[in-house]
Amino acid sequence: MVDLFVVARRAGVHFFGAGPYNPAAAAEGTGTMLAFALRRLALFPLLLFCVYALAVLLIMAAPGDGLESAARDLPPEVLAQKRIAFNYDQHWAVRYFWTWPKRLVWDGDLPAHQYEDWTVVEILRAALPVSLQVGVLGLGLAIALGVSVGVVAAANRNRLVDHLAVGLGVIGISLPTFVIGAGLLLIVGLWLRAAPVGGWGQASQALLPAIALALPSAAFIARLTRSSMLDALAEDYVRTARAKGVASWRVLFEHALRNAFVPVLGYLGPTAASIFTGSFVVERVFAVPGMGTHVVESINNRDQSLILATVLVYATFLAVMNLLVDLLYAAVDPRIRAVGAPR
After folding, report:
1. What is the distance between the terminal CA atoms of the chain, rounded to a whole angstrom?
2. What is this structure's pTM?
3. pLDDT for 11-63, tens place per residue?
4. Domain count, the chain
5. Residue 102 lies in a domain
6. Has residue 220 been placed in a domain?
């Protein structure tokens, strides 16, 4: 069967404010998207430097340098040697903007204040895969659950299923992740004993933390998908598909969802940010040895080297995620390639 979406675009039907379909403009837009991606990549070093500089300013505004709390009982001679090992004998600008970045990225021997035998790179190498597993699983659950509930709610507008989905969405958005995590620990872990309540080492131990991270974002995605689907289902091309006898599931998923998913895709960048930064609390609740645990401990112990390293890791990840979301716009919706890259 001919794709009614393509036929409607070539006939001049406008969706969500876009212009008529133009294959030549779409091909030209592909090159524009490539240039846009290259410009964003060229700005990555400047972005990371600005984030790093802001983190340095915040660290300098806090009292202490990390060694004061970790080495209170050490003799003055040993403390002086430690300060030299951490480059505190250098000017702050040289230490923060040359020596520490060089030891972190190039040499790989930047020490952590709170760990005697571990470097920052070794800590990140052990913790980052754990956080990525929990975060990617949580992001996947949020997208799958949110889009599914939103589509079902829009297909059953003003019915019991729709009202139930809207109500649960409000509750999901309102509850913070640490409350959801504590509830999952109590109900699923202790009462039902359906999943491990903490720790790391088994695949099942990632399930409850991922669910706790996913539910608030899934609730917002469900509301956004429902709203977008209702707009898409009111379009002429959907009524045309139904009039021609296209199956209801094809109308929903092949025609309406294709347009309705574009606003959802734009929310994935902030969703990834909220999920991976929300892991700070969730990892502590479930005793997961990931990045969030080390971030909280480094802040409590004023471990400056570990704080700056984790800030750089999170900033890099979120910048890459936002770039991928912008590029996925063009993959999902060719009209964006025809109009040009995002501004």
Report:
1. 36
2. 0.76
3. 444 433 344 445 544 445 556 767 777 888 888 889 999 999 999 999 888 87
4. 1
5. no
6. yes
